[in-house]
Design a protein that fits this description.
Layout: H1 3-58, H2 63-85, E1 87-88, E2 91-92, E3 95-104, E4 107-116, E5 120-129, H3 132-149, E6 157-166, H4 169-177, E7 180-186, E8 189-193
Parallel strand pairs: 5-6, 6-7
Antiparallel strand pairs: 1-2, 3-4, 4-5, 7-8
Length: 200
């Protein structure tokens, strides 16, 4: 390489470097502008959330209590329906209780409904919309806690019940496969789905 070619190469590299620095500076400015816009957008979202929350609170609604209200509606519906006949899966019960909170032996739990006669006890878990985790909780934690908290029903036939306004067919089948009675709302009526072992 001649001296002249070397000078041209160095000059070309200097120009490329200058252009690269200029492009980097433009990119940095664009990133600062984007960052500023993002911060502004996040602040606007927070402000909108605050305004919406305040409006809902003035109307007596909080986002947390919407789910609670739906659950209360489902519980009231199934309680009133079962209280009317006191019959579940072909078994007549003498008593029906709701929202039973019991503590003892280091265990505490709340049960949506319990139906009892001289031989049977039905433990009813009510959900507005049932999920797999609700079934798992009923089968494991709720049932285990029931046995600890209600030892007087040790020799009764135990019936686990999942009552819900909505659940997917796969979950319904899983419940039935685990001998859980499924109650669903059908208009103003309750429709029962029984595991094979519950069919009388």
């Amino acid at each position: 390489m001649t001296d002249e070619e070397l000078k041209d190469l160095v000059a070309s590299l200097a120009i490329d470097s200058k252009n690269l620095h200029a492009a980097q500076k433009v990119t940095d400015e664009q990133m600062k502008l984007t960052d500023t816009q993002m911060k502004s957008t996040i602040e606007q979202i927070k402000q909108n959330d605050k305004v919406l929350t305040e409006k809902l609170e003035r109307m007596g609604v909080t986002l947390g209590n919407i789910g609670q209200n739906q659950g209360a509606v489902a519980e009231e519906f199934f309680y009133n329906s079962l209280k009317e006949t006191q019959t579940l899966a072909g078994v007549h019960y003498d008593f029906i209780d709701k929202n039973i909170l019991r503590s003892g032996n280091g265990v505490s739990d709340e049960f949506d409904m319990i139906l009892v006669n001289g031989n049977d006890v039905a433990i009813v878990e009510v959900k507005y919309k049932a999920h797999a985790s609700d079934l798992d909780k009923l089968l494991s934690k709720k049932y285990a806690n029931f046995k600890k908290l209600f030892p007087a029903y040790k020799n009764y036939h135990h019936h686990l019940v999942l009552a819900t306004f909505h659940l997917y067919d796969e979950l319904k089948q899983q419940a039935l496969d685990h001998n859980v009675i499924v109650l669903q709302r059908k208009g103003n009526l309750v429709e029962s789905y029984l595991p094979v072992s519950e069919v009388h």
